[in-house]
Amino acid sequence: MARQGGAVSLSLLLALLLGACLPAPAAAGVHLSALPKALAVTASAKPGQVLHAGVDMLTVTWSLNTTEPAGADAAYKNVKVSLCYAPASQKDRGWRKSNDDLSKDKSCQFKLTQQAYAAGAPGSFEYLVARDIPTGSYYVRAYALDASGTQVAYGQTGPAAAFDVAGITGIHASIKVAAGVFSAFSVAALAFFFVVENRKKNK
């Protein structure tokens, strides 16, 4: 019996050691569908309006929804505001796809701001559309974060109220003008040499 007890103890010890060496299971991500839509979010851009990267400003405001009970935002410590691709700009682009699991979501790639949440008071932020924002259709989403930085609530302007951003292509107007001038000069030079060659042949 003593040997059996020793064998059981040894097996239990090995099992515990093996369990300690194995990686811990990944924590489940926060799901958007599980979050309360407790924030009212607005953006200065109207649906369908075109903002130009590096030029135009976007004003975003947020506050606790009036439908939420008093004190519902007691756990809110920060607000994170992001620019998200609208469905029209996600089509056939897997690297922009939205996912209910926020740890896998790829639609809200552009962080506009993160700042302390003021309970009972609206917040706002003025954002100059960054020069590296690509051309596309967008909306704004804001997350309320708790003390650990975990999303506990959200609000958004769309995607029904999506607006457009005209990105910078890298081709300036002066380059386009220069290219046009050189093209015209090339055509004129070609025509001139053609006429000269024909005259030589006729002589």
UniProtKB/TrEMBL annotation:
What are the protein's UniProt keywords?
Cell membrane, Membrane, Nitrate assimilation, Signal, Transmembrane, Transmembrane helix
Superkingdom of this protein's organism: Eukaryota
Q: Is the keyword Transmembrane helix in the record? A: yes
Q: Does the keyword section mention Signal? A: yes
Which regions span the lipid bilayer?
Answer: 177-196
* Entries under InterPro entries matching the protein: Transptr_NO3_Nar2
Q: Which residues form the signal peptide?
A: 1-28
Q: Which GO terms describe its molecular function?
A: nitrate transmembrane transporter activity
Q: Which GO terms describe its biological process?
A: nitrate assimilation; response to nitrate
GO cellular component labels: plasma membrane
Q: Which family does it belong to?
A: Belongs to the NAR2 family.
PANTHER family, from UniProt?
HIGH-AFFINITY NITRATE TRANSPORTER 3.1, HIGH-AFFINITY NITRATE TRANSPORTER 3.2
Q: What does this protein do?
A: Involved in nitrate transport.
Q: What is this protein called?
A: High-affinity nitrate transporter
Q: Could you tell me which species this protein originates from?
A: Dichanthelium oligosanthes
